[in-house]
Design brief:
Elements (H helix, E strand, L loop, with lengths): L1 E6 L3 E8 L2 E9 L5 H8 L8 E6 L3 H9 L1
Parallel strand pairs: 1-4
Antiparallel strand pairs: 1-2, 2-3
Length: 69
């Protein structure tokens, strides 16, 4: 399973891809109350991630929040 990420200025967007097919995709604003908990819940039932690819314009704190999820 690959995780594709777009860490933008106002929100995080993601998509999961396996065997060349896109599965679950979503987005969440950085100012979502309880962002860390909400992101972990959104990703809870995903298969194990083999690799992650990201495009980012954010700072270290936001990258760390995504990495922790």
């Amino acid at each position: 399973m690959k995780l594709l990420l777009d860490l933008g200025n106002t929100r995080l967007k993601w998509a999961f891809c396996a065997a060349g097919e896109f599965g679950h995709a979503g987005a969440m604003a950085w100012d979502t109350p309880g962002f860390d908990t909400a992101l972990a819940a959104a990703w809870r039932d995903r298969p194990a991630i083999e690799s992650a690819w990201a495009a980012t314009v954010t700072g270290a704190a936001r990258r760390a929040a995504v990495t922790a999820a």
